[in-house]
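Quick entry between incubations.
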Amino acid sequence: MSWIDQFPGLSRLPDGIRSYLVGESKIVTVPANTVIFGPGKSPENLLLLLDGTVRVQQTSDTGREIVLYRVHAGESCVLTTACLLAYEDYSAEGIAETETRAVAIPRKVFDKLVSDSIEFRQFVFTAYSKRITDLFMVIEEIAFQKLDIRLAHKLIELAGGEETVAATHQKLAVELGTAREVISRQLQEFQRRGWIEQSRGTIRLIERAPLEKLAQS
Amino acid sequence: MSWIDQFPGLSRLPDGIRSYLVGESKIVTVPANTVIFGPGKSPENLLLLLDGTVRVQQTSDTGREIVLYRVHAGESCVLTTACLLAYEDYSAEGIAETETRAVAIPRKVFDKLVSDSIEFRQFVFTAYSKRITDLFMVIEEIAFQKLDIRLAHKLIELAGGEETVAATHQKLAVELGTAREVISRQLQEFQRRGWIEQSRGTIRLIERAPLEKLAQS
DNA sequence: TGCGCTTCAGTGACGAAGTCACCAAACATC
DNA sequence: GATGTTTGGTGACTTCGTCACTGAAGCGCA
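Done. Structure below.
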């Protein structure tokens, strides 16, 4: 079984293309917290993530940060390549959040695949679309949504199935592109209502129902 | 002379590709204020703008709006196609701001061109990159920049070489994704400082220098 | 010319969010 | 245990967004 099977969009590649792709790309592993791309550091490869997640975020000159989106296992890092491929000086950076395994496809191979395979083209354009809608959603959120709603949403997302979220107030602030104090105060309000309990670096969700209700209002 | 010469990125297309593109696409004209794409209205063609501008904006459920970016003459509407091509239900819409002439490339032709021509591929991916960096910049602005700075910036941009800007406070609010009252107050402050003069529907820039200084601080 | 209608802009009060400066626990380490 | 670093808490203040109005400017039309 090849890594290709981890990517639904690539499963229908014809055999020739498929073996070409497998032959010409290689698997790389990067440790946690590696900066994969960023100002002045453009990747020469298209990355397909096998394991781990990559966080893409932006830093303002005033030092505040915001998480734009994440690339998860089974997804590709198209924007990365495209952005840096053509346009230049902005400060977004991609960071491996955990140890990350990925398939690296050299630019030339990428180009040939786009040229030769309609399936690969579809894979690429679909990935683009997804990222762009992600960005649209980020814009809608920061421009129009109230912070308590966004925070509730983020807590549930980060918790996943777990009961607790391991994150400092500062990290949550970066997730939402706001200031640490704002998060602190909002979490206190949640705590006052008995929805969460806090301890240094972790948040325990006690009453999930009202949080979820708030999140989708 | 063909319309192709209006697109620098396409000038290097080989003759065969070039004539194929010209032959298979057609020129369309839409009147001002036409909704070119939007919720439930996805375009079957890739558009290359010959004349006019298309404004892409998003509306929140609470009724507030924000302008995401504009497509100008000589640019292509790639995101449009890609987004709606694959991903579904979000509320961005594209509106012709003026009467607009554009070249419409059917999806099949688009696909064949991407397959056959490295120049066309480069054109497409470059256009993508530009849009995405635009979106990154929008996010950075709304998340981190103060409103007076953004407004000063927008006024100068809208003025162009002219002395006056023809826009209502409401329009400016949509440009910046904020509320009308906020714009009104900020413009009053500019007026108080003697930088602008206002009359119904127009703003006259009197002191450009301090506005520009504020805009890039 | 005067009457209504619509669109645009101004205002005050208030709540929500961001900023600044500073303090106090909790943890890490030596 | 002394010390330094992270993390979180707090108050004062500014900016921004919201709501509910008011009033003025332009337009159509009898």
